[in-house]
Every structure is written in C-alpha cells, then in structure tokens.
Amino acid sequence: MEARRDALLDQTSAALARPWPEGHGWERRQLSDALRPAGSPWGGATRYGALLALEQDPAINGQVLLVTDGRGRLEELLTALEPSRLVLLRAPAGPPDAAVRSVRGPFALPRGGLGTLRVQVGANRDMEARWRVFEGEREAASGRLSLLANVTREVSHSFVARETGLLRLRFTLQAEGDGEGRNDAATHVVVVGGRRRILFCRDGRVPEGGDALLALLRADERNDVNVLSRLPGSADELAGVDAVVIHDLALSQSGQSREGLEAVADWVRRGGRLMMAGAQGAFGPGGYRKTALEEVMPLRFRPENDRPRQVVLLLDCSDSMRAAAGSQTRLHLLRQAALRVLDHLDTGDSAAIVGFSETADSVEFLPLSRRAELDERIRRLEPRTTTRIGTALARVMASLTPGGENRVLLVTDGDDGESRSEAGWRELGAACKAAGCALDIVLTENVTRNWEGWLRSAGAPGKTASVGGGGFGEILDALDRALAASEQGLLDDGSSHGGFVSGGLALPLTLLCRTSPRPDLRPGDLLLEVKAADGEGPAWPLLARREMAGRSVALCTEGAGPAWIEGGPLVQAVSGALGFLLAGAGEGKLELVSRDDRLELVWVSAEAPPDSDLKLSTGATARLLFSGHWELDAVPALQEVSVFAGERLIQRMALPQLPPRELAFTGDDEAFFAAAASRGVTVVRGLQALEPQAAPERGVHVALGWLAALAGMAALLAGFALRRR
After folding, report:
1. CA–CA distance, 224 with 218 (Å, rounded to integer)
2. For position 715, what pLDDT does the model report?
3. pLDDT at 380
4. Is residue 29 within 8 Å of 689, Cβ to Cβ?
5. How far apart are CA 722 and CA 713, in angstroms?
6. Contact between 38 and 28 (Cβ < 8 Å)
7. Which helix (H) or strand (E) holds 659?
8. Which of 415, 412, 474, 411 lies closest to 450, judged by CA?
9. Which of 16, 71, 79 is nearest to 52 (CA)?
C-alpha cells in the first residue's frame, strides 16, 4: 500500500478531525509484522495476530477499526479479535498502479537446459499494459495484457540456458497512467552450470596414467576435472568449485602450511565437498593430522587403539639460540616448535622436555593431561653454552624403557661441540635400533652433518628434515615434515598378515593407512572396512563419508593398484561415495514464490524434501508450512544466499531482484473482505454512518481503536479510543 500512503493519510486525517461523542479518546497505532506506535517506519509483512495485544488491553473497551487492504490472513485476524468488535475500513484507492507481484523460475540449470519464467502481475483498476522479457541485454519476448482491477494475471516465458555462468532474466511492465514506477520491473537470476568443476590435487611428480581414481572421475562426462599439484588456499580459488579431491598429495608438497588449510576446511563447513584419498601422502602420514582438514573428515587420522606414545623433545639450547631469525630470536621459534609438537599429541601420550647444551636436562615424562606444566617447561628454556649432541642423546637413550612406543625428536643446528668418534655415533645409532626408539631429527641449518649419516647407517630408525634456503626461519615447516614422518607407522602393506579382506572377500590393497571413525559418524556412513586376512586384529576403515553443511569422503588407500579392477567391490564402493559427494552439485532444489500474504521457498527436486525449518546463511529462518513449502519473511538484500537444512547445504541461490513487497501488491483483496463479512465482521468504505459501539462484554463505555494495516509494509494507525474517565 506504499502507493496509497498519501490517500490513506488524507483519509485518517479527516477521520481525526470529525467530531466524536464527548468522552472518547484516541489510541494511535501502526501494524505490519508487529503492533507499533504511530510514526514508526513503514514496511514489513502484515501480521494480524499482533492485534491480540488490543484484545488483552483492558483500557481498550470498544470497537477496533482497522484500515487495511486485506493482504493478510483472515483466520489470524479473527483469532486475535472478536468479530463483533472489529470494523474493517476499506483503504482509499490511491493512484492507478500496475505492478509486478512475483517472479518464479529455476535458480540453476545445466548448460542447454530448458527453463520457464513465470511472472504474476496485477493492477488496482482496469488497465492495458505491455510486458517485455530480456535475456541479458537481448529482448526475448513481449506482449500485451488487459488487466482487471485486483485480478492477478500470469505471464510465462520459456528459455534455453545457452551459456555457462549467470543468466539474468529481466521482466518489465508498462501501463498508461501508471502512478507508481518502482514496481514495474523485476530480475531473476539463473546459475547455468557446465560440468561439475572438480579440483583434483595430486603429486605432480607421479604420472597420471596409473591413477584409477582420477580416471574414474574423468569417465563421468558431467565432471570437469582440473588437475593441480597444489592445494587451493583462498576463498577466491574455491569460488565456483563443486568438489576438491586430495589424492596422495602430502602437505609438504601441497604449497600450503598447516594454517593455510583453514580456507579449504572453512569452505567445507559452509557447504563445499572434499575427498581425501591415499596412504603415503594422505591423512597422518601426509602431514594432515591435527589440522583443520581432519576436523571436517569422517575419520580421525590416528587409530583409537594406537599405543600411547612417549616423545622426548631434545632441544638445542646452545648459545646460537640467541641469534635473530627474522623479527624473532631462534629461541622464540624453538619454543613455538616445541609447543607445536605437544599440539600433535593425543590424550594418553606423554612428553619430556629436555633442553641441552654442554649437558642435558633430566628426562621426566609428563602425561599430556599436565599440559600446563609441559608448556611452562618450554617457556623456561634459555640459551646456554656449547653444543654436545652425542652426550645429550646418550643420556636420553639411557633413560628410556625398552619396549615402549618411544620417539626422540632432536631439534638442533647440528654444529656439534664435542669430539665424538664415528664409532661412538654408530654405537648410539645401534642403541636406538635395539631399543626400537625412532629418532627424528630437525636440522635448523641447511647443511649435511656427518654424525647424522653415521646414526642412520648404524640402524637408527626415523627421518631427518632440514630447513631450506630460508634457514632457521623455516623450522616450523621442517618440523611439520618430521611430524608427518612420525606417522609412517600407520601405513600397512599387508605383508605381515597375508593381506586384507572386506566382507569375507580378499581385497588386494597395495597400502592401507590406519585411521578410526569419528565417534559421531552416523550409521551407514562407514562404507567399507578391512581386516587382516589371517583374522587377527581389528577392522580398519577403508571408505567413509560424512554429511555436514558440506560433505566429505575418506578413502584410506592409494587410487591405483590391483584392487581397482573395473566392476570390483572397491570401484563400486568408491563410485557410490563419489555419487554421494557430488549429489546436487549444479542442480536447483528450491524456487522462491511470492504469495499475496507471504514469501515461500518451494521444493522442486525429485528428492524428498527436508521435514524441518530451513536456515539461511544470513541467519534468517524459513519456517516449514507443510511438506515442501517454507515461509520466508523477506528476500535478503544480497546477490547470493545459502540455504541449509540443519548443517546440510541445500542450495546456493542467486537471488532475484523484486519490487519491495509494499509496492508489489496494489489494490485490495476482494475475497478477504467478502469472507470477513460472511464471518460477522463489519466492512465499510467510509465513516459517515459509523457510530461507535461498546464491546458487549465491557459495559456501556466505548473504546474505538483504529489501525491501518498495509500489506507488505508497516501500517499507519489513526486510532481513537474511549477510555474510562
């Protein structure tokens, strides 16, 4: 009723100036989605239920006069007020006005797909109008309409989604004498998809020819697979991407840091699709344990029944730690590295913080549950004197209990200050081997150290990682490589137990990465498990899925090898998991429909609709009316919005540009007034013959409240009430 505002104000001003019986008083209100004081902003949907506040106000003891166009729900009105108290005053006509009332069409189509744009138009009096439809800048259709007062007409236009991208369909309406131009056009946007865009991230040093997982994705003509040798690291790189697959691409080879993975994880949380597959370059061994990606996957990257670990952090605290490393000191970076190691541990693990220079601190293991004490020991590390690596390592080895899950992480620049012989170093290496203690070394200088080679040649297990050309400043990256190396024990080639079986059938996997299901994984989401062929030991996840706002799939083996037989159980299961991962990519499930009294999201997919309210990325809620229909208060003033059922992403919608609802519905709802009169409500077009009456149950005193309810906007109340004086 925005176009009728001036006429409405004139009408109410005249009513206010009319002489009324002595003792009558005024109550002024506005009604839209709530009952508000006079002078409040206009706008919003019509919620007659807000009038219940008048029914419950003992000071309002007479009739309620409601100025309205009837663009609300009659049952809601009659529930709020007794029909005998209610008088409906037809709002003044206002100037001639033709309007676009609603636009409906698909939000997503495949390239070459057919769609239909349906536009409802109306006018507040009989008018001749011309309509036109533009596809982009091109006029695609036009015609003429004879509009009848308060009667909705529909215009349909069929179109072909020819090009990938955004297709903008603009509808315009022209009528002679139209007094309101702000409601004569609307734009609907269709996302035209080509094939599903998939980023396949793999180690570029490995030939693509034997990659069965890559071949499986490329075999589906709906997929556009783009192979990368790195991971995307920003929202811009992920824009328009339907799925990301990480196949045996270790973090150290991905071009990203642990912190840089947050972009992909956040994309999944908001509705993206992620698959991680592989063994050597995936999950824990790939360096992804305790990263943001683990949080969005269906599996934990360390098995629940993994033996508790005892880790010694043997940290070089010689005088060289005083030196600067960029804007920080080496000691400051060393402390950060030590804290990162603790972050990598799990409940049940223990750690010992051992600083050394000429001598080494005592080895005292504390459980991770005493993390505050461990952190304090790291903070107390200070630079000392010269470096005696062999002496420190020998002291640590002497303190370890044989047979435990022991690991020593030595962080040093490698510049040894003692004259230990080659034989002495080999003796230390043999001691590591005999104790079954892994020795991982992080060298903070990009040089080769002889003693490291002697340790390894004597059998000391473990890996060595060295900083690159950036020197000490790259210690955290080198440490991440060392931590990933510590997860190599999670790999199983099956040779020690006769291979693997799944469901009683042999499955010739070349390599399995041991993981464990998330505790909150739903029944049926663990798609494949394998066991040792000799029947010993637990079952391990092989293929799992997870549905959140986005979706994720984990495949704990390499995407190549003899298990990838066409039509075999692994290929069938992976094909099904890919179907889950890519379901709905590029397809539209919802349409936005504007009714006289509400906006609706309508389910148009063949899938079963959600049976709960829907959430928008703006924080708004679409309330479930009945199956497949949800009520929405307003179209968000954004170009795009995401719609969720719980945490599951339903659809990303490029939003139409519609006339404001207060301008879209011009004229009165004749059926509303006819139905109201049949239910005992007094309906009038003027106040000349109206005499105030007291409400029957409230005695002889009269209270008359007069409200103007305007469809789709805040309404002006010009009211008056007789109060007890």
Report:
1. 7
2. 33
3. 92
4. no
5. 28
6. yes
7. none
8. 415
9. 79
Interacting residues of 521 by C-beta distance below 8 A, sequence separation 6+:
298, 544, 546
Q: Is the CB of residue 49 less than 8 Å from the CB of residue 651?
A: no
pLDDT score at 555: 98
Tokens standing for 610? Answer: 């959600």
Cβ neighbours of residue 236 under 8 Å, at least 6 residues apart? none
Nearest Cα to Cα of residue 667 among 93, 182, 6? 93
- Distance (Å, whole) CA 702 – CA 705: 10
Chain-centre distance of CA 132, in angstroms?
38
Instruction: Write down the pLDDT at residue 703.
Output: 33
Q: For 310-486, which CATH class? A: alpha beta
Query: What Cα–Cα distance (Å) separates residue 193 from each residue in 187, 188, 394?
Result: 19, 16, 64
Q: How far is CA 327 from the centre of its chain?
A: 37
Angle, vertex CA 73, rays to CA 69 and CA 77, nearest 5: 90
Rounded Cα distance, 196 and 103, in Å:
28
- 122: tokens are 């109306």
* Rounded Cα gap, residues 300 and 544, in angstroms: 11
In the chain, domain spans: 2-93+667-722, 98-194+587-663, 196-301+506-582, 310-486
- Which residue positions in the chain have pLDDT lower than 70? 1-5, 7, 11-12, 14-18, 20-26, 42-45, 194, 403, 586-588, 595-597, 606-607, 661-662, 664-667, 687-725
pLDDT of residue 537: 82
Burial of 705 (0-12, 13-18, 19+ CB in 10 A): buried
pLDDT tens digits, one per residue of 610-651: 899 999 988 889 999 999 999 988 777 777 788 888 877 787
Which residues, 6 or more positions from 585, have their beta carbon under 8 angstroms from its beta carbon?
193, 196, 242, 243, 273
The length of the chain is: 725
pLDDT of the residue at 608: 74
Residue that the structure tokens 């009169």 belong to: 677
Dihedral of CA atoms 242, 234, 518, 299 in degrees, nearest 10, equals 70
48-62 b/e (C-beta count within 10 Å ≥ 16 → b): bbbbeebeeeeebbb
Q: With CA atoms as reference, report the closest residue to 615 among 588, 638, 649, 640.
A: 649
Containing 53, the helix (H) or strand (E) segment is helix 52-55
196-301+506-582 in CATH: which number? Answer: 3.40.50.880
Q: What pLDDT is stored for residue 700 in this prediction? A: 32
Give the pLDDT score at 84.
84
Distance CA 633, CA 623 (A): 9
Identify the pLDDT of residue 667. Answer: 64
Q: Are the C-beta atoms of residues 103 and 659 closer than 8 Å to each other?
A: no
Say if residue 281 is exposed, middle or buried (CB neighbours under 10 Å; 0-12, 13-18, 19+).
buried
Residue pair 710/6 in contact (Cβ under 8 Å)? The answer is: no
For residue 403, the one-letter residue type is G
CA gap 194, 111 in Å, rounded? 5
> At the top level of CATH, which class does the domain 98-194+587-663 belong to?
mainly beta
Contacts of 577 (CB under 8 A, 6+ apart): 275, 527, 543, 545, 553, 555
Both tokens of 299, joined, read 């599996």
Residue 393, class by beta-carbon neighbours within 10 Å (0-12 exposed, 13-18 middle, 19+ buried)?
buried
Using CA atoms, how far apart are residues 553 and 580, in angstroms rounded to an integer?
9
Cα dist from 373 to 340, 376, 379, 400, whole Å: 15, 5, 10, 21
CA atoms within 13 A on the CB side of 84: 7
Q: Are 297 and 273 in contact (CB under 8 A)?
A: no
Q: Fold match between 196-301+506-582 and 310-486? A: yes
pLDDT of residue 240: 76
Q: How far apart are CA 628 and CA 610, in angstroms?
A: 7
